[in-house]
Amino acid sequence: MLSFASTALPVAAIGLVMGVYLPRFFAGHLGLSMVAVGAAITIVRLIDLGLDPLLGMAMDRTKSRWGRYRPWLVVGAPFVMLAVYMLFMANPGVTEGYIIGWLLVLYLGISIVTLAQAAWGAALATDYNDRSRVYGVISAVGVIGAVLILVVPLAVKGSFANGVHAMGWFCIILLPITVVICTMISPERVAPRAASPQASFADYWKLLTRPEMLRLVFADFVLALGPGTTAALYLFFFHDARGYTTPQTSILLMFYIAAGLAGALFWSWLAQRMGKHRALILASVCYAVTQSMLMIIPKATMALAIPGMFAVGFVSSSFVLIVRAMVADVADEVRLETGEERAGLLYALVTTTQKIGSAITVGISFTVLGLVGYNAAEGAVNTPEAIRGLELCYVFAPVILVFFGGACFIGWKLDAVRHGEVRRQLDLRDALAAEAELLQAGSGSNLADGKPGAG
After folding, report:
1. What is the phi/psi pair of residue 155, to 5°?
2. Where does residue 268 rank: exposed (0-12), middle (13-18), buried (19+ CB within 10 A)?
3. Residues 20, 23, 24, 27, Cα dihedral to 10°
4. Could you give the count of Cα atoms lying within 13 Å of 83 in the half-sphere of its Cβ?
5. Separation of alpha carbons 120 and 179, rounded Å
6. Which one-letter DSSP state was computed for residue 241?
7. Within its chain, how far is the Cα of 388 from the centroid?
8. What is the Cα–Cα distance from 178 to 80, expressed in whole angstroms?
9. Cα→Cα distances 369→92, 168, 179, 279, Å
10. pLDDT for residue 315 is more than 80
11. pLDDT at position 455, please?
């Protein structure tokens, strides 16, 4: 599991920098306006929306001696490395078109890597509780990568831009190392293929309209949209609205991210004890409480802000890992009904909703801040009204969205008992299919030797 999860180190690090540091890097260092940055990210996300379903279908159709998902992991890494270099090392004077172009390349590579790993994980762990463990380990390893990337700018002397450059090199070097570790050590079990393995857009629509997938897709959308609102506004909120210095904001963010390590292990354990859907409902309520408490903490009070941010990070770490584990359960049910492997396509559905959430989050948040008069330029002085708008966007909007996400799982039917029956039928059918292939191979071998077939 550790070798399989290793690619989460650089992927999580890149995701953190993209959500927290790059918007400020683009607006502050490169000189782009808040509206231009929000528009660029929104445009890229909208263009990128149709990509994941195509990738998911292509992965499900892949058949090679190296497996179904392993080759895609190798293909995606160079796209990520090149785009990280072009974006993280960008100099003032670049245009909005430059940012859009290389963001498209970056999101293409990230989509390939994350989709391949998510679908591969569903094949790696087939038991209901094992999936909570696997995706819990992936989340925990991702937390380690996010914490490591936060240490990088603290160890680099100079400006904010120098820190972003250093983080870029960290990701570029780490990604190929982890991809080699993952692909060389992790096993991949390819499920038997049915007679007609081709998927169409009609299949995509049927999967999307399944009641359980509708719940997962909408829940994943709002659960990504809620905390995603805080990512793009984090530095502005804690520095300008709450009075923390830049080094202090890095320390607080480190505690927030580090809490995900303990949180991933805890929520993985709790999902095994009480069921994934119940754990998610509980997590959504806890998130509302911990996120709201940030407004109660006095300004520039590190002694209280540290446990506050740790609590928010601890709870929010549950959302992605539990939803990913639940998608794997639905993939088993789909394969039992249709005879086809659709894990890649199912994971494409939820990653697409995350991209929509991210696009809406950055675009709307930055536009609203622009409307209330907030100025993101370094050294700018903002009005009390602008600061209040910033606080409302950061604290309370995510709470409402996460509540909707938790409500999606009231009355969820695909629990441990139901999934156990699905796996029992799948394992029986796979065993019969494997036996039939052995008999057919033996029969063909005997006929080739001029002997009667064994079948």
Report:
1. -90, -5
2. buried
3. 180
4. 23
5. 13
6. I
7. 30
8. 13
9. 23, 28, 39, 34
10. yes
11. 39
CB 131 within 8 A of CB 272: no
| CB 139 within 8 Å of CB 317 | yes
Q: In the numeric block, which tokens belong to residue 183?
A: 């692909």
Q: Name the packing angle between helices 343-371 and 34-48 (round to 10°).
A: 160
Tell me the C-alpha distance between 187 and 111, whole Å: 21
Q: pLDDT value at position 401?
A: 87
Asked whether 153 and 88 are in contact (CB, 8 A), the reply is no
Per-residue confidence at 196, pLDDT binned at 50, 70, 90?
very low
- Which pLDDT tens digit goes with each residue over 89-117? 988 888 878 888 888 899 889 889 988 88
Burial of 398 (0-12, 13-18, 19+ CB in 10 A): buried
- pLDDT band at 378; cut points 50, 70, 90: low
d(CA 118, CA 323): 11
Note the pLDDT tens digit of each residue in 253-266.
888 888 988 898 89
CA distance 150 to 250: 7
- The C-alpha atoms of residue 339 and residue 7 are separated, in whole angstroms, by 30
- Helix%, strand%, coil% for the chain, nearest 5: 80, 0, 20
pLDDT tens by residue, 20-69: 788 778 877 777 776 777 777 777 777 777 777 788 878 878 887 788 88
Here the tokens at position 237 are: 């909120």
- What is the band of 454 on the pLDDT scale with cuts at 50, 70, 90? very low
Predicted pLDDT of residue 363 = 67
Does the structure show a pLDDT above 90 at 438?
Answer: no
C-beta separation of 119 from 59 below 8 A? yes
d(CA 209, CA 217) in angstroms, rounded, equals 10
Task: Please name which of 96, 115, 108 lies closest in space to residue 45, comparing C-alpha atoms.
Answer: 108
CA–CA dist 133, 126 (Å, integer): 11
